[in-house]
């Protein structure tokens, strides 16, 4: 691996529970409270079922007759974590490529991020279909041949498009969807379950609650000299 000084920095940032204060998928399901959702969430978090299967099963509990309610709640429920706009401004200033790699769903991810001017081709998330009787999640970013975790939105597949010999890969995340990506990253900013997993695996990481310390870290001369 070449020195970080000769590589371009790129950030892969999770959405639910990272850019947002809350986990929007869980919030939507909890709000509409269809029977059986708790057991599915427990299976996802315990990694007894894949993320793709679990998220698909959760939204299949919701009828498409409630489409407008689900979309409106998904958008209005979002609370953006402190310092996100400042992080984007710092990335632009330092010429750091910024990608949103989200296990979230297009009907709330795109509208929420639109206000921040992030190009759609820098946002990776899952899709949705309201054509049948139940809401179906679609998976435009599946695992490549190097991943067998059935991620749904495979973050490591996206990261592999940025080879480690040319990019210093920085991951910002919080949960089970970020575990595999953290193993590939040069640097991890973590919170919640991701911090626990980084400690278990001995992965170098820096904990955060607000984005503002991350902005400071990226500005630091020691970071610039990495």
From TrEMBL:
Pathway given in the UniProt record: Amino-acid biosynthesis; L-methionine biosynthesis via salvage pathway; L-methionine from S-methyl-5-thio-alpha-D-ribose 1-phosphate: step 4/6
Key word Hydrolase present in the record? Answer: yes
Q: Which GO terms describe its biological process?
A: L-methionine salvage from methylthioadenosine
Domain of life the protein comes from: Bacteria
Q: Which GO terms describe its molecular function?
A: 2-hydroxy-3-keto-5-methylthiopentenyl-1-phosphate phosphatase activity
| Entry keywords, A to Z | Amino-acid biosynthesis, Hydrolase, Methionine biosynthesis
What InterPro entries would the database entry show?
A: HAD-like_hydrolase_phosphatase, HAD-like_sf, HAD-SF_hydro_IB_MtnX, HAD_hydro_PyrdxlP_Pase-like, HAD_sf
Going by the record, the broad EC class of this enzyme is hydrolase
Instruction: Look up the EC number in the record and give it.
Output: 3.1.3.87
Matching CDD domains, A to Z?
A: HAD_Pase
Which chemical reaction does it catalyze? 2-hydroxy-5-methylsulfanyl-3-oxopent-1-enyl phosphate + H2O = 1,2-dihydroxy-5-(methylsulfanyl)pent-1-en-3-one + phosphate
Q: Which NCBIfam families match?
A: DKMTPPase-SF, HAD-SF-IB, PRK09552.1
Q: Which family does it belong to?
A: Belongs to the HAD-like hydrolase superfamily. MtnX family.
Q: What is the designated name of this protein?
A: 2-hydroxy-3-keto-5-methylthiopentenyl-1-phosphate phosphatase
Q: Native species of this protein?
A: Paenibacillus curdlanolyticus YK9
Name of the gene: mtnX
